[in-house]
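The following block was generated as part of the benchmark described in Methods. Ligand: (5S)-5-amino-3-OXO-hexanoic acid.
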Amino acid sequence: MKATIRVRMGTNDAHYAGNLVDGARILALFGDVATELCIRSDGDEGLFRAYETVEFLRPVVAGDFIEAEGEVVGWGRTSLRMKFVARKVIAPAAEGSASAADWLGEPQVVARAVGTCVVPSLSRRPTTAEGRPGPCIVTAAIVGAETTREQNPFLPITPDEIGDEARRCAEAGASVIHLHVRDDKGRPSQEAARFREAIRAIRARTDVIIQASTGGAVGMSVDERCGPLQLDRADLPDMATLNVGTINFGDDVFVNRAPDVVEVARRIRATGCTAEIEVYDAGHLDIAMDLVRQSLVEPPLHFQFVLGVRGALGASARNLDFLIGGLPRGSTWGVAGIGRHQLPLADLAIVRGGNVRVGLEDNIYLDKGVLAEGSAPLVARAAALVRACGRELATPTQARQALNLRSR
Ligand code: KMH
Ligand code: ZN
């Protein structure tokens, strides 16, 4: 959650020679932003308890327009941790200039701070529109279609390996398994029978939500990709992915032609599985809204923002914020950062109240140069980030509720 205010510094704000404005004035702006965040989050003003850091980075003078932005980055029982930044967007023009002031194309950061506000539990109103985020759903993408055993020897391939890995991920905090399967040679497969075996192996070990891929691997036909949707009701997954747009995918092209997307959406709807809409590029949100208009998917929608695929939208906070800003009301969303972006993007998503996907499908490393020994250690890292932010980890039951899944 973010809040921004923009204010002109007047001559009354300037206390020093050279029209200089004192730092306390900037802290007052941060205080106003913090107040807005407390009201929006907890329904009450709150009190500033402490600043952890304050940095003044550039002088501010009368005539400057200052934009102060705050963002909630942690939720305690009665506290909100916030990050602030103040930027100069307009500055008085130099003497002799034709105009009195200049618009600074690139805003200049003048101050940063991190601090904590407390909203006493008695005055907290939990029913505010933008309350604190609910439990975080961690999805483990444990197999994928591209990762190989040569790249990471901990990749599960057989049904038993997949079942064991799903259990380890559930124990580490995952509530959803994003599932691909492989043939006996370890090549990607979308065969119903292989999904049946893997799904039974997972359900024998844990009650996680199973989300089958209908994306499969690059080059597969739509019929082939929809293999998991052919299973009998008892073996059907709880969810299925719906890829809505064509993208460059590294050196390949992941083709999702409009009529094929409609066909996959129809087949998912016919099974009663809940669709997770995979968004790799900004226009994919618009395609999803078109599918709503055609009654092919039913709100509230659930989105996965897959960011950092080479050839599609990059893994940046700016791109994530743009996508969040375009979500239809009532949607749930998660982020899957590709490669080295996996954990940093998970952190951004957690702070913003979203859900996260980690695992060997998207990233094979735990740290730079250190292979992850399966997806469970990545789930454990994501779970630690969730806790550090003061959020709860969703259990499978909580995730089922949040994602409006039909009961099994
Ligand atoms: N393997 C990618 C080409 C999905 O699971 O729905 C597609 C993919 C998406 O993995
Ligand atoms: Zn996948």
